[in-house]
Prior knowledge:
Strand content of chain A: over 45%
Oligomer: heterodimer
Number of strands of chain B: 12
Helix content of chain B: under 10%
Radius of gyration of chain B: 14 Å
Structural class of chain A: mainly beta
Amino acid sequence: EPEVTQTPSHQVTQMGQEVILRCVPISNHLYFYWYRQILGQKVEFLVSFYNNEISEKSEIFDDQFSVERPDGSNFTLKIRSTKLEDSAMYFCASSGKGGSAQHFGDGTRLSIL
Amino acid sequence: GNSVTQMEGPVTLSEEAFLTINCTYTATGYPSLFWYVQYPGEGLQLLLKATKADDKGSNKGFEATYRKETTSFHLEKGSVQVSDSAVYFCALSDRTGGFKTIFGAGTRLFVKA
């Protein structure tokens, strides 16, 4: 069964550094998402992406965050200048059409020191 | 805005006991409803879904029925196993907000042998 893959599984970064989290969505999917889960807390929506542009973003997704689909297969989340509170598990998800169940990757655990 | 409320955990049961995890939602439109499961150290897996009122989603012995009149989507299983120990998330998605998924806080289930 096709799946969403995320790399790396764990990223450790110094505060203030840039980090790029990578995702390969399921190949025929059209809708892409990033979520985060701070340890022990609920899963929070960050951003949705469709037709090469952001559909919606949450208040968490400020100017430090950006997303890109550079080559038709990868979907990346960039944090420009990381803060301690960015430490979380970041999940990528994709779906074939709007409203259908989203398929999640295994996540990237981001640790900011 | 849309939201999901689910019962707080942890829930501790003995093997073969009956499981209910309550979930209610608030939505302005007609959302699709989901249950996701997160096993220790893993990502989010879709457990079951329902897309319209009175639909019943089922998978691996788990069931949930979309009740529009009570805005609920309670998860049930007749006989739990130790391997069902995980965190269960109720979630919804609809057209408002670019089909983003909104999650409940999660309910941790422990099943004892």
